[in-house]
Amino acid sequence: MEQKHTRQEKMEAFGRMLDVLDVLREKCPWDRKQTNESLRPNTIEETYELCDALMKGDHHEVCKELGDVLLHVAFYARIGEETGMFDVADVCNRLVDKLIFRHPHVYHPSQVGAAHPLPLPYGEDEKEREFSKVGNVEQVLDNWEQIKQKEKDGNKTVLSGVPASLPSLIKAYRIQDKARHVGFDWEDRQDVWAKVREELGELEHELQRDDREHSEEELGDFLFSVINAARLYKLNPDNALEKTNQKFIRRFNYIEQHSIKQGRPLTEMSLAEMDALWNEAKQQEREIHEN
Description:
With 291 residues, the protein is mainly alpha-helical. The chain has helices at 7-27, 29-33, 36-56, 59-82, 88-101, 104-107, 125-128, 137-148, 168-180, 192-208, 212-232, 237-261, 271-290. Helix 10 runs antiparallel to helix 11. The longest helix has 25 residues, at 237-261. The radius of gyration is 25 Å and the shape is extended. It starts with 6 loop residues before the first helix and ends with a helix. The relative contact order is 0.04.
């Protein structure tokens, strides 16, 4: 592991990155013509590449991809500066103010045990009295959602903070989680299984009727209920599904590699042959895991 950098070295590295971006923005034809709209697709791609590296636990790749995402953050701030709307200092200051505002249990002057309380960006006594002591993670998260709705430009409704462009699976989880913080949730998590079974039954009923429109609706309800169950049992459905995706890819690749060795295309292999190879791959994974 590389030696930790000092605070001064970290600040210098950040400044160096901004200096390079300034030069590229002025002298590189590609960087010079970029806009918020043109960068957006690349930002999405870079974010997914970071997520891939995080899932793989590849620290070298995580470091590299974090740099790519950081570059995009700085690039948008540079464009904001050019339009006179904001710059990277505004971005950082708004972030810090928001973090302090949303962590009264850490920065609130009257909070018992607070570590190094700092002056809040507001300061009115009435606002200070709004926040009660927070003792555990769940209380922190509940308080977080309530505080966000108190911010001047914060969420106006409980679910308004869920981005419309989120992938559907992640969006479903976030919707349910936000509703939970205001008390709209199952009292006993085991009760969710009756709902899952109910939704599965309704889906099967519509499929038997060959009603495509209602089948799709019921499929959505069923998936939503399964995601709800995962949340209640503190499982991340997106991570779980991605692990299954990777597992399927590994096992299917195993089948395909054997077909190539045999000089037979997959289309000429029987399902029984492919199942046998699938089980071989599964057994090998189990043996590796056990060892």
